[in-house]
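Hello forum,

I keep getting stuck at the same step: I have a sequence, I want structure tokens, and every attempt I make locally crashes halfway through. Rather than fight my setup again tonight, could one of you with a working pipeline run this one for me? It's a single chain of 397 residues.
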Amino acid sequence: MARALEGLTVLDLATFVAAPFCGTLLGEFGAEVIKVEQPGIGDDLRRLGRPAQPGLSYWWLAESRNKKSVTCNLRTAEGQALLKRLAAGADILAENFRPGTLERWDLGWESLRAVNPGLILVRISAFGQTGPYADRPGFGRIAAAMSGVSYLGGFPDRPPVPPGTPTIPDYLAGLMGAFGALVALEHRRRTGAGQVVDVGLYEPILRMLDEMIPVYAATGHVRERIGSGTEYVVPHNHYRAGDGGWVAIACTNDRMFARLLDALARPELLGRYRTMADRVRLRDELDTLVGGWVGGLAAREALRRLDAAAVPCSLVYSVKDLFEDPQVKARENIVAVPSPLGGLLHMAGIVPKLSLTPGAIDSAGPREAGQHNEEVYGGRLGLSREELAGLRARGVV
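Reply #2:
Ran it on my machine without issues. Output:
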């Protein structure tokens, strides 16, 4: 069965993670994604993280899956002309250069729209295309700091920390870019007009800060970091088990809390902690109570008892634990695909799961920069091998 986005063509002009992830998501559901890399050195993601071999990282192989690689020197007039020819037949172009870079290369929105009025241009940058910070550079750590989420991470007497890995803002920006592209495609279906999708790297996390913005605007309350707990819900924390493992417990209403007391064999305490306001007021006391109970058990025994009482809970997993978990296996959250280096390469599976047109991973990231030059430039643009050899000799591809 054809995948949902088959027939769409995406040009990925971006580097590192954010806008490339937009292309990766679209490619998983059938779009043809053409990765445009710098001649000679390729994308910087090829060298970021732990190497699978010199100059080729596991990160690249996983996140550039399903893409075709071409090389093109966008700083040259010939390279710009080639890119415009590719854009003329594309549906979506994703980039994450600093604002103004494409314009300096005569590849800005007006130039691209002139060759393809229906093109969707996804632009992901540190602070967006407008505003006083638009020209500033930035990466995921900067975006997390700007968004407000890093301020919340960690304990009150220690420095703020980013959320898990500093690349989470990059991935969320790529996700929002893909969502914006699909919305823009629906508008194009109705009107024929393309448009720009503009995402600042910090904006998706800012959008996800639950009640923080309306609460501050209404009351002036600034949420402070409190470690692994949650300001407005208790018990909602990580608790250390007797065997050294960690158990996450989340009781977000009175019914869940009553079931937790049943698991603790302390139902008589319900009166003392009857409302959420009581539980928040007595946070330290209640966390000590729950922590003492978990600390007296092995992590999996605590989990068994919590599960039996229908209390939301989980072990706090390392990546090793993910590989061993039956739920992760059943959902194919980790999959193995053939590696261009030989053997199998494990990577995260497809999300979301569609019942009629599921996504798929056809290949890991291309091993060589420009691996598909002949296929793309010859097949799509009709360049002969001699013309391609001339472009290569001039450093254009």
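The radius of gyration is 25 Å. If your local run keeps crashing, start a new thread with the error log.
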